[in-house]
Known about the structure:
Blueprint: H1 3-27, E1 39-40, E2 54-58, E3 62-64, E4 69-73, E5 82-91, E6 94-99, E7 109-114, E8 120-129, E9 141-142, H2 149-155
Antiparallel strand pairs: 1-5, 2-8, 3-8, 4-7, 5-8, 6-7, 6-9
Amino acid sequence: MTSICWWLYVSVALAISMLWPRMALAENASVSPYNTSRVLAQQDNACPADLNDCRIVRLEPRSVNPGKSVVIPMQCPAGYPYPVGWDARRHEHISIGLVPGRPDGRVPRLVVGNNADEPGNVTIFLGCARQDHRATAMPQLLSAVPTNRAALRQSQ
Length: 156
């Protein structure tokens, strides 16, 4: 599979995974399955444990409107130019997916989607290294099980 086809496949899969929770919202539009005030802490996973030259770079917090998404480039600073991982502090109803870089040198990007009817916030933490570690695996998707989902099922 060529790298462009692979990139397209990953992008489509990411779009489906970001829209799936929104379709669940349509099942019971009067009650959100998400606890929109719950904030999930970052897990200190931005830098892989075996990389000594990795530094965590905290990006500016972003707000995402209901049903919308934003794209955040994984742009590391000049001294540590290579992204090797990422993590996030976010509201429960915020999902984040990785769109890998392309062979043309385009940096990887994170697509941040809001799956609820309330605004949500996210702060991205990038793991940045001095050397290119292409063999390092990165998280592909960060999402949460809706807290209110069990309550919705019991009421039906």
